[in-house]
Amino acid sequence: MPCLNLSTNVSLDGVDTSSILSEASQTVARLINKPEAYVMIVLKGSVPISFGGSEEPAAYGELVSIGGLNPDVNKKLSAAIASILETKLSIPKSRYFLKFYDSKGSAFGWNGTTF
């Protein structure tokens, strides 16, 4: 049940968000080695963000997963998501943070129960 929650100060009006969601979903599934059917991507635009005292394009993300995360995977995920944000939304890689949470299944509800 990996969930990638991305917030950016870039407006998503006129942006092909489907391609961002699709690419991010496939990337997370592949790198965490989880079925894409369980991957959730949340993308929020026009969020007020100041990074380094500047409101230039920036993004913040949090990725929660039940297993599958480790320092090597996290590094690959950070690079891959940064590349998507840079290509699709013109957010420089230096203006993006991604926080990782490796959680227990009992901490998440789904389908009327927990994992």
TrEMBL record:
One of its GO terms (molecular function) is phenylpyruvate tautomerase activity. GO terms for cellular component: extracellular space. Gene3D superfamilies: Macrophage Migration Inhibitory Factor. InterPro entries: Macrophage_inhib_fac (IPR001398), Tautomerase/MIF_sf (IPR014347). Coiled coil: none annotated. Pfam families: MIF. Signal peptide: none annotated. Belongs to the MIF family. This is Uncharacterized protein.
